[in-house]
Amino acid sequence: MTEKERAARCQKIREQIYEDVNISGELEDEELLERIEECVLKTGHTVYLSIREKTEMIRTVFYSMRKLDVLQDILEDNSVTEIMVNGPDNIFIEKDGRLERYQKTFLNVERLEDVIQQIVAKANRLVNESAPIVDVRLEDGSRVNVVLPPVAVNGPIVTIRKFPEVPISMDRLLELGSITEEAADFLKVLVRAKYNIFISGGTGSGKTTFLNVLAGYIASDERIITIEDSAELQIRQIPNLVRLEVRNANVEGKNEVGIRDLIRSALRMRPDRIILGEVRDAAACDLLSAMNTGHDGSLSTGHANSPEDMLRRLETLVLMGMDIPLAAVRSQIASAIDIVIQLGRLRDKTRKVLEIDEVLGMKDGEIALAPLFCYREEGQNEDGSVAGRLVRTEHALRRQFKLQTAGLKEECLCRERQE
Prior knowledge:
The protein is α/β, with parallel strands linked by helices. The chain folds into three domains: 1-66, no CATH class; 68-164, 2-Layer Sandwich (Beta-Lactamase); 170-413, 3-Layer(aba) Sandwich (Rossmann fold). The chain has 13 helices and 15 strands. The strands form two sheets. A nine-stranded mixed β-sheet has the order 9-8-10-11-7-12-13-14-15, sandwiched between helices. A six-stranded antiparallel β-sheet has the order 3-2-1-6-5-4. A hairpin with a 2-residue loop joins strand 2 (91-95) and strand 3. Helix 1 crosses helix 3. The chain is elongated. The N and C termini lie far apart (64 Å).
C-alpha cells in the first residue's frame, strides 16, 4: 500500500468514526482506540495489511483525532530539535544538527489548519487572517510560531523549537567539544563572582542552552528572576526562582505585558540576579540600568555575529528607547557588561564557543574589548568535521574587583578543577 493510499484509507476511517459518534467528549482515549482498531480490522478484510501496517494506521488515525496528526511522532522523538512545516506537503526537521526532509505530509491544507487551531486553542490564543502571526507554547514547553496566509504565501507555516527533557549540562558540552575544561572553569568562577555576562550568537547557535548552563553555576541560596518572551530556561537548582513571561496583546490590542514592564517589576522583587532570555528591543535600556544599579551577576543573550557587532547592536537598541548621546550609551554599556561570549555553528554544523571577551571600558570614544579565549581552527578530521580548539590568549582578566569582592583569587580562574 502506497503512502497516498494509506492516507486515503485513514481519512475514510476517521470520517466513519465521526459519523458514528460525537467525538467532542463522549469517548475516552481507550474507547476511541478500540473503535479505530475495529475499523482498521474491517479494512484488513478487503485489502491485505501486515501487522506493521495495521499498527501504523491505528496510530495515524488516533494521532489525527486526538494528537497533532503527522507531527506527533517527531514531537515524541527526542533527537529532533526543530520542526519546520512549510504548508501541508513540505515538512523539514533538524536532527543531530542537520536539516532533513520528513517523509510524511498532511492530507490537505485543512488538516494542517485544524492542527494549528488545536495548538493555539490550548494556549487560549487566536490566529486567523486578521491576526495571522502567533507565538505559543506546547504542554511540554516546546515553542511554536505560526504564520498564516495571506502573510505566508506558500500555505500555513509552523515552526516548533523543541527542548530536551533533561537540560544540557557543561559536562555534555565538554563531551561535544563545544568548550574546553579551562574555559568552562574560567566561566564558572566568573558566574560565581557575579560578573555581568552577555551571550552573543546567530540563530540556532545555542545561546539559550548556554545561558541555561551558566545559570547552573549560580549558588542555590540566591533569588533569581528570569524574564523571557517564551519561557525556555530550565533552571532547577534554585529554590527561590521567579519565572516571568511576556503576555502578548489580546485580539483588541490591549493587556500586553512586555519585557520592559517585566524588568521594571523584577527590580521591585528583591532579585540577587536578573536573567533576561534575549534582548531584541528597547528593553536593553532597562537591562543596562539594572546591571548598573547593583544587580550584578545578570545574564542575557542577543543575536550578533561577533562581540563587536553585539555591542553595536546594543547601542542601536538603547537608542530606540532613549534619546541620549551615543557617547553616554557606550559608557553605559561599557560599565554594565563585563564579559561577552560569542557562540557559533561551524560548517560541520557543530556548535562551539568561538570567543570569550572582556569589556575593558572606553578608549578613544569606543568600547574596548580584549579577547581572553579564541577558537583556532586546525584543519579537518577524517570524518569531515572541523578540527580546532578554544585556546587562551595572552590577555589576562583585568577587571578583577568582583573577583576580589567574592573572596576568590586570580589563580582559581583556570585551576579550580585541579584544586
